[in-house]
Specification:
binds coenzyme A, Peroxisomal Thiolase, Chain A, domain 1, single chain, alpha/beta, 2 domains, four-stranded mixed sheet, 11 helices, 22% strand, 34% helix, disordered C terminus
Length: 343
């Protein structure tokens, strides 16, 4: 669509503290069975901060890409939960990672990482060589875990990718569709200092409908059919939303990557968290057509279709990554010492 790019590094991070469905059942009238059946969620993570998780995920992406921080030309941080109203969290993340480039927060809630992918592609088309795109969320900051609707859904986490300009034609953004509908703001919102307020059934209904529309538009823009897509990575909100949308679109769950059961809804972090796992599982290959689709509060939504390049720093390593990760988990991963305020 513009110049090409590859994903030269991918990394993710989940904080240690697990909140299981049984844990939630101690403070509200619910059950593990109900939550699993109605959402597909088994547990979620809490703790840490947006900045801290972003730095850990970003450092892993740099390490896997074998890149020096000084080679990154721009940082985009998709987050709903920056530590401050001003400034954004991205300058602090850039500083902690040793980047000295431009840094910008993107606030499109659960669609933020997909929006960021389109923005990153535009920056590369303007001549930049490498853009780091991170989604990081401390959802526990705006979630009341005693509320039966929102309390069962949200969790913390971060995922990072490095997009590297590559004009070989192997990998590129094939098409995208971004959209918003502010008239639906009241169905899912959090006020300053407040927690999520949600009309669950209406969000459920709208999510299915906007995903169907957005995926259809992106496929049309790319001149592709449903069966041309090799791997689908949807925003992880509720398995029933994905299944219902797929029934309408004609997608199969077989080539859909999910991680919802272990993360819950991590908003802008959810898609890169799944991407990292999909790489570990060997689900990406050179030339694969990968479709990312997100939706969330705003409402906002977005779909991006890319052709995956055969960059050895991601693809060549995927068979070794499980082993590599096993070794890493035996090592103590240095977690930057940051307070809730990101300092
Ligand atoms: N545990 C047990 N029972 C629950 C419950 C819970 N956490 N929440 C609701 N219920 C009960 C209700 O009281 C109701 O009981 P009743 O039939 O006796 O009155 C029944 O389950 C159905 O309630 P309802 O609110 O219609 O449930 P639902 O099937 O719509 O599921 C959500 C609720 C929140 C899981 C679902 O609406 C949802 O996931 N919506 C989308 C939310 C979302 O994805 N937001 C983020 C978008 S990025």
């Amino acid at each position: 669509m513009t110049g090409g790019f590859c994903f030269s590094g991918v990394g993710s991070h989940l904080p240690d503290q697990v909140v299981s469905n049984d844990d939630l059942a101690k403070s509200m009238e619910t059950s593990d069975q109900w939550i699993r059946e109605r959402t597909g969620i088994g547990e979620r993570r809490v703790g840490s901060t947006t900045t801290e998780m972003a730095v850990v995920a970003g450092a892993k992406a740099l390490e896997r890409a074998g890149l020096d921080p000084s080679s990154i030309d721009h940082l985009l941080l998709a987050t709903t939960t920056p530590e401050y109203i001003a400034p954004g969290s991205s300058p602090v993340v850039a500083h902690k990672l040793g980047l000295d480039c431009g840094a910008l927060d993107i606030q499109a809630v659960c669609s933020g990482w997909v929006y960021g992918l389109v923005m990153a592609n535009g920056l590369l088309a303007q001549g930049l060589s490498r853009v780091m795109l991170i989604g990081s969320e401390m959802m526990d900051y705006i979630t009341d875990y005693s509320q039966r609707d929102t309390g069962i859904l949200f969790g913390n986490g971060a995922g990072a990718v490095i997009l590297e300009r590559n004009d070989s034609g192997e990998g590129e953004l094939l098409a995208f569709d971004l959209g918003s509908a502010g008239q639906y703001r009241s169905i899912l919102y959090a006020e300053h200092g407040g927690v999520w307020q949600m009309e669950g059934r209406e969000v459920f209904r709208q999510a299915i409908s906007v995903m169907q529309r957005s995926v259809g538009r992106a496929l049309d823009n790319a001149g592709l059919a449903v069966q041309d897509i090799d791997l689908i990575i949807p925003h992880q909100a509720n398995i029933r939303i994905v299944e219902a949308a797929w029934k309408r679109i004609g997608f199969s769950m077989d080539n859909t990557a999910m991680r919802l059961h272990e993360t819950g809804n991590t908003s802008a972090a959810s898609i890169p968290l799944v991407l990292d796992k999909a790489l570990d599982e060997g689900r990406l290959f050179a030339g694969a057509k990968v479709l990312f689709v997100g939706f969330g509060a705003g409402m906002t939504w977005g779909t991006v279709i890319v052709r995956w390049a055969g960059d050895p720093r991601t693809l060549g390593h995927q068979q070794n990554r499980s082993k590599h990760q096993q070794n890493r988990s035996n090592m103590k991963v240095e977690t930057p010492k940051l307070g809730r305020d990101g300092e």
